[in-house]
Amino acid sequence: MSTSTTAKLNVREYYVNRYKETKPAEQEWNAGTAMPELINFVIDGRIPYGANVLDIGCGVGTEAVFLATRGFNVSAIDISATAIEKTRQLAEFYGVALDAQVSDVLDLPMENAGVDLVTDRGCFHCIRADERAIFAAEIARVLKPGGLYVLRCFSSQKPGVPKPTNENDFVIKTFGVSSQEIWDTFSRDFICEKLELVASFPALDRPDPYGWFCLWHKA
Ligand SMILES: C[S@@+](CC[C@H](N)C(=O)[O-])C[C@H]1O[C@@H](n2cnc3c(N)ncnc32)[C@H](O)[C@@H]1O
Predict the structure, then answer these.
(1) What pLDDT is recorded for position 175?
(2) Is 99 helix (H, G, I), strand (E, B) or coil?
(3) Is the CB of 13 under 6 A from ligand 1?
(4) CA dist 193 to 30, 55, 107, 121, 216, Å?
(5) d(CA 120, ligand 1 centre) in Å
(6) pTM (2 decimals)?
(7) How many H-runs (helices) and E-runs (strands) does the chain carry?
(8) Is the CB of 58 under 6 A from ligand 1?
């Protein structure tokens, strides 16, 4: 097995294991709520009612279920089967329908150009630098022309970028990206509406780390 393949498995296995071995309250990324930036985006009416929304790296489904309760047609994917099971349970608890599937974001189980909005809280910053082009291409592929990609990720430019509790060099290195890295990844296929630092990335065990809130339109 090549080094690159080993590293590839590493970040995915990290999440698969964390979801298997811990409760949602022990997973430091679980906020228990959608981020204010996404809530405001929905309240502002930026997405038409009933639009097709895809949550990538949905975790236990906090934001996917929020969007489903607001009347959107939600699909959600995550690499962890445990997380997808939790997402389905949360949707059932709220009495909303959504399509949650185990999938790698680099190979989305969606047809071309069917999605109005892709939303991402904390998935992009899990992706290795050499996989970012595939990541951006997959999002561009599934979005309709003019569709939106809402990205929230940790910034490398401010203190407070988190370290997973399980000391794993590779995972730690993947967290925190610069505005230049974001620009380099998405500016080829997307038009940037917003790329701003926000301080509302809630975390359980430390002060809010700063993160990026970005809006990209598929060109
Ligand atoms: C920081 S957590 C955020 C979870 C969720 N979006 C939330 O806000 O609660 C990152 C998520 O991305 C998922 N993930 C990481 N790499 C992935 C990949 N290659 N494909 C799909 N999901 C992935 C992890 O399993 C994890 O659920």
Answers:
(1) 72
(2) strand
(3) no
(4) 27, 20, 26, 17, 6
(5) 9
(6) 0.92
(7) 7, 7
(8) yes
CA angle at residue 69 from 46 to 72, to 5 degrees?
A: 45
Measured CA angle at 8 (ends 175, 203), to 5 deg = 25
214 sits in which H/E element: strand 211-218
At 59-99, the pLDDT tens digits run 999 999 999 999 999 999 999 999 999 999 999 999 999 99
Ligand 1 lined by 124 (C-beta under 6 Å): no
Dist. CA 83–CA 90, nearest whole Å: 10
- Banded pLDDT at 203 (limits 50, 70, 90): low
**pLDDT score, position 36:** 87
Domain that holds residue 186: 3-218
Read off the CATH number of the domain in which 13 is found. Answer: 3.40.50.150
- Cα–Cα distance between 198 and 208 in angstroms, integer? 10
Q: Which residues, other chains included, contact 1 with Cβ-Cβ below 8 Å and sequence gap of 6+? A: none
Q: How many independent structural domains does the chain possess?
A: 1
The two tokens of residue 22 are 């811990």
Beta-bridge partner residues of 150: 119, 215
